[in-house]
Amino acid sequence: MSCLRLTVDTADADLASGALWAHEPIAVAEEAAADGRVSLLAGFADVATAAQVAAALPARWSPTLEAAPADSEWRDAWRVHAEVIVVGHVRLWPAWWEEDAPAFDGVTVRLDPGWAFGSGSHPSTRMALAQLADRIEPGATVLDVGTGSGVLAVAGALLGASSVTAVDTDPEAARVTPANAAANDVADRIRFLDGIPEDGGPFDLVVANIGAAVLTQLVGAVTAARAPTGSIVLGGLLMTQAPAVAAAYRRADPTLEVIGTDEEEGWSTLVLA
After folding, report:
1. Which end of the chain is less packed: N or C, by CB atoms within 10 Å?
2. Which among 189, 196, 111 has a CA at the least distance from the CA of 146?
3. Is 262 helix (H, G, I), strand (E, B) or coil?
C-alpha cells in the first residue's frame, strides 16, 4: 500500500476529503498540521494508483506520496461510513452489516474489500461494473485483470458467468477475493492468479480496471486473452488518457474497435470489440 498526503486550509478540509474518497482510497485519516492547517492521509493499493490520484488533485493541496504508517487501525475507520451501492441490476452490500439485505430486483454482492481496491465508490469501478452487467452472457468466461477486492469477478459469477479468472499481484487481493467469492457462494467458479494465464482462455469478456500505465504495459497479454468475438472493458482511465490507451490496443489488435465509452467525474471507461 502507498499513501497520499494533502495539507489544506481548514476551509478546504471537507472538500479535499470528499475529493480523496471519490478516488476510492483504502482509508483517509485527518489530523491537525503544525501550521494550523489540516493534514489528510489517504491509503491506496499501490504507488501507481496514489500517483494517479495526486495528479488529478489541485496543486494548492500539496499532494505528496509517502509510505503507509505501521498502525493498521486507521485503515478500517471508513467502515462506519460504508453505504449500499447500486449499479443497474447489481447491488453491493457491506458484508459486515448485521441486518439482512432487503429484496432487490437483481444480484447482491456481499462485499468486504478489506484493504484492497474495489469497494464500488470509485467511478471507474461503477462504470466497469455497469459494462460487465450489460455485456455478460449466461455461461460466459470472464477474465478480471487487477481484480482487487474481487467485486467484478464475484458480480460476473452471480450474473451467470460459467467461470471467472481473477488476476492481481497485490497480496491483499489474494486474501480478499477468495473470501468474497466464498461469502457469495461462487468460489467454485472463481480462480485467483497472480498473472494473466496462458491457459483457460480465450475469454468471452476481459475486464481490466487498473489505470493507463498498467493497461499499456499489459496490452499484448490482454488482447491475446480475448476470444475472437469477445469484448474488452478498460477502466481506471482519466478522460485525457483514454484516446492514447485506445490507440495502443488498436495497434496491438487491428480488429478491435471502440464500441462504447462511459465518462464520470473525469474518469473514462472504454469498451473494445
Report:
1. C
2. 196
3. strand
What average pLDDT does the segment 50-69 reach? 90
Question: Helices (H) and strands (E) in the chain — how many of each?
Answer: 8, 14
Please report which helix (H) or strand (E) contains residue 235, including its range.
strand 226-238
Separation between Cα atoms, residue 92 and residue 111, nearest integer Å: 6
- State the average pLDDT over residues 86-92: 97
Strand order in the sheet with 85-87: 85-87, 90-94, 107-111
Q: C-alpha grid cell for residue 235?
A: 477502466
Name the phi and psi angles at 91, rounded to 5. -120, 130
**For residue 149, which of 122, 130, 189 has the smallest C-alpha distance?**
122
What DSSP string runs through 129-153? Answer: HHHHHHH--TT-EEEEET-TTSHHH
Q: How far apart are the C-alpha atoms of 71 and 87, rounded to whole Å?
A: 34
Q: For residue 178, is the peptide bond before it cis, meaning its omega torsion is within 30 degrees of 0?
A: no
- Mean pLDDT score, 245-253: 98
Report the Cα 209 to chain-centroid distance in Å.
6
* Segment (H or E) for 176: helix 171-183
